[in-house]
Amino acid sequence: TNEDQTGESALPDLKPINHSQRQHIPIPGKTQLDLVMGSAGPSRGSEDYYAAMVGNNILGQFGMMGRIGASVRVKSGLAYYAYSSLNAGVGPGSWEIIAGTNPSNIDQTIHLIRSEIQRFTNKPVLKGELADVKSNLVGRLPLAFESNGGVASALINMERYKLGLDYYQQFEGIIKSITPEAILEVAKRYLHPEWLLISTAGTVET
User: Fold this and answer.
1) Which of 104, 149, 165, 195 is 20 to 30 A off residue 18, Cα-Cα?
2) Most distant pair of Cα atoms in the chain: their distance
3) CA gap 120, 78 in Å, rounded
4) Are 84 and 97 in contact (CB under 8 A)?
């Protein structure tokens, strides 16, 4: 196996997705249909990570689950929950949208999510929503150090991802440096509305 500079086994790069694929796992009697759709995302050490992380908060985390939650859950009432998740680790991760919906609403839910991804990858995020997310990310950082578990987790993150001992001192500056253009560039690189892996689990209505 390949090894990185630390001598640990290095994970292989993910092959780019250039098509859409949909799979259903039948679970008889399950009233809610669970949906996961997405594509490959950056690793924690990638230069793309911070722009993707801030962008993901806008897409499906901040407030009532971001743009995804506002469109699919609040405005349209199609899902019990709907949000996005950026899963970045030592190796390649995933950028996912997760939702739980009535089986009869699944196609419309997928369509709305695709529409929000299309919007996210076509136009820069608004300055106001970016400012709100930055303030939230920076403002909640001290909460991570209010418990022994939080401090331990922070130390593990610094060591695992080789962030440096001054990482949390630099965090505010890193977040504030993210621009709408940087988020758009990263979104275009990883999210393609027409090339998504889609998985559902539950009972499909016929």
Assistant:
1) 104
2) 56
3) 20
4) yes
Question: Residue 171's CB: how many other CB atoms inside 10 A?
Answer: 15
φ, ψ dihedrals at 169, nearest 5°: -75, -30
CB-CB contact of 117 with 123 (8 Å): no
Q: Residue holding tokens 């892996």?
A: 197
Residue whose tokens read 């292989």 = 12
Residue type, 123: K
Sign of the C-alpha dihedral, residues 191, 195, 200, 203? positive
Instruction: Count CA within 13 A, CB hemisphere, residue 2.
Output: 7
CB proximity list for 176: less than 8 A, separation 6 or greater: 134, 138
- DSSP3 helix / strand / coil % (the chain, rounded to 5): 50, 20, 35
pLDDT in tens, 86-122: 999 998 889 999 999 999 999 999 999 999 999 999 9
Give the predicted TM-score (pTM) of the model: 0.88
